[in-house]
Amino acid sequence: MAGSCGGSCGTAEAQQAAAAQQELAIKKSLGKIKNKILVMSGKGGVGKSTVSVNLALGLAKQGYQVGLMDVDIHGPDVVRMLDLKGTIEPPATEGGLVPPLKYSDNLKVVSLEYMMRDRDEAIIWRGPLKIQAIRQFVSDMDWGELDYLVIDAPPGTGDEPLSVAQTIPNVKAVVVTTPQQVALADVRKSINFCKTVKVEIAGVIENMSGFVCPHCNETVDIFKSGGGEQLARDLELPFLGRIPMDPKVVMAGDDGKPYLSSDADSPAITAFGKVVKSVELRLPPVAEPVPLQMASTATSSCACSGGSCSSGSN
Ligand SMILES: Nc1ncnc2c1ncn2[C@@H]1O[C@H](COP(=O)(O)OP(=O)(O)OP(=O)(O)O)[C@@H](O)[C@H]1O
C-alpha cells in the first residue's frame, strides 16, 4: 500500500538497507583482520606516512599478511612512496569486492590515489564523503585474511581519524611525534582525541630523533631527542621506539623505494626494525609468522661525536 510520503520513504528504506548491508560487509571484512593500527599525529610532516609504509613493510618482511590503507584523503602519499603508480588503474571487481593493489605477496595497499585519474588533482571533499570513502575502503575491498592492517591518517583529529575510530571499533593508535616541544604539544591533542573516542593507544614513536651522519652512519643529536619518550612516560603510554633523521629516508620515499626495502646498514634501519619488533610484541597476531630475512643491523667504526666526523667522503 502506498503511503503519504510520495515515495520518499521507499528511498529512505533503500538507504537504510544499503547502510545495513555495508555495516555487515564492514564487520565481515574486519573479522578477518587480527590487528588494526591507526598511525596518527597532531602535527603535519612528522613522518606518519614514512612510519606507516616502513611499519607495514617491516611486518610484511617478518612474514605477516599486511594491509596498508592510506586515508590521508587530501595528500595520499603511500602509493608514491611504494612506487605503485604503474598499477594505479582501478582493477576489475571480484565477486563485488575490489582487490587492493599488490605490493608483494603479503603486502596489499589501498589509497585514494587509486581513484584519482590525475595524480596531481586536488581533492575537495566534505566530511560525509570522506567518511563514506573510508567505510568503503573497509567494506568494498577484498583485504582477505590479514595479521595487520596499518592505516595512515592525515595530521590532526579531523574526519578521517574519527571515521576510522567509528568504522573500526577495535583499532589501536600509534602516535608519531618529533622530539620538539611544538610537536609534543600537538601530540597531546591526539592522545586526548583517542581517549575521547575510546581508541586504545598502542604506543608513541619518536621520529626524527637525532641525525644520522651520512659519512659515518653515527647518530648525532643536532636537535633535541627523547621528548617523545618522556611524553610517553609522563602519560604512562608505551614507548615503541625512536627513529633518527636520515637523509636516505627522504631519498627512499621520493624514489618510491621504501627505506626498509633496502639492504643498507644504518642506525635508522636498525631503529625501524626495533619499532616493528615493539609493535609486534605489543600487538601480537594469533598465527605464527614465517620469518623472512630482515635487513642487518648497523655497526659503525667511526667515533663521530657532535658532528665532528672526519671519516667519510664528501
Ligand atoms: N626519520 C626520517 N629521516 C629523514 N627524513 C624523514 C624521516 N621521517 C620522515 N622523513 C621525511 O619527512 C618528510 C615528511 O614525512 P611524511 O610524509 O612521512 O610525513 P607525514 O607526517 O605523513 O606528513 P603529512 O602531515 O603531510 O601527512 C618526507 O620527506 C620524509 O621522507
Descriptive labels:
single chain, 314 residues, alpha/beta, Rossmann fold, nine-stranded mixed sheet, 9 helices, 18% strand, globular, disordered C terminus, binds adenosine-5'-triphosphate, ATP-binding, Mrp-like_CS, metal ion binding
Description:
The protein has 314 residues and is an alpha/beta fold. It has a single domain (22-282), classed as Rossmann fold (3-Layer(aba) Sandwich), CATH 3.40.50.300. The chain is 36% helix and 18% strand. It contains 9 helices and 9 strands. The protein has helices at 8-31, 48-61, 78-81, 127-139, 159-167, 181-196, 227-234, 247-255, 267-282; strands at residues 33-40, 66-70, 101-104, 107-111, 146-152, 172-177, 200-212, 219-220, 239-245. Strands 1, 2, 3, 4, 5, 6, 7, 8 and 9 form a 9-stranded mixed β-sheet that branches. The longest helix has 24 residues, at 8-31. Adenosine-5'-triphosphate binds at residues 41, 44-50, 72, 75, 77, 154-155, 207-208, 243, 245-246, 249-250, 253, 268. Adenosine-5'-triphosphate binds next to helix 2, strand 7, strand 9 and helix 8.
| Number of structurally distinct domains | 1
Largest sheet: 9 strands, mixed
Counted beta strands: 9
Beta-strand percent range: 15-25%
Category from helices, strands and their pairing = alpha/beta
Q: Roughly how many Å apart are the termini?
A: 83 Å
The unique ligands bound to this protein are: adenosine-5'-triphosphate
Q: Please write the CATH class name.
A: Alpha Beta
Q: What share of residues is helical?
A: 25-40%
What kind of assembly state do the chains in view correspond to? single chain
Number of helices: 9
List low-confidence stretches. Answer: 293-314
Tell me the CATH topology: Rossmann fold
Strand and helix order: HEHEHEEHEHEHEEHEHH
Mean pLDDT score: 79
| CATH-level-4 superfamily name | P-loop containing nucleotide triphosphate hydrolases
CATH architecture grouping: 3-Layer(aba) Sandwich
Coarse shape: globular
GO molecular function: ATP binding; ATP hydrolysis activity; ATP-dependent FeS chaperone activity; iron-sulfur cluster binding; metal ion binding
Binding site for ATP: 42-49
Pfam families: ParA (PF10609)
Keywords: ATP-binding, Hydrolase, Iron, Iron-sulfur, Metal-binding, Nucleotide-binding
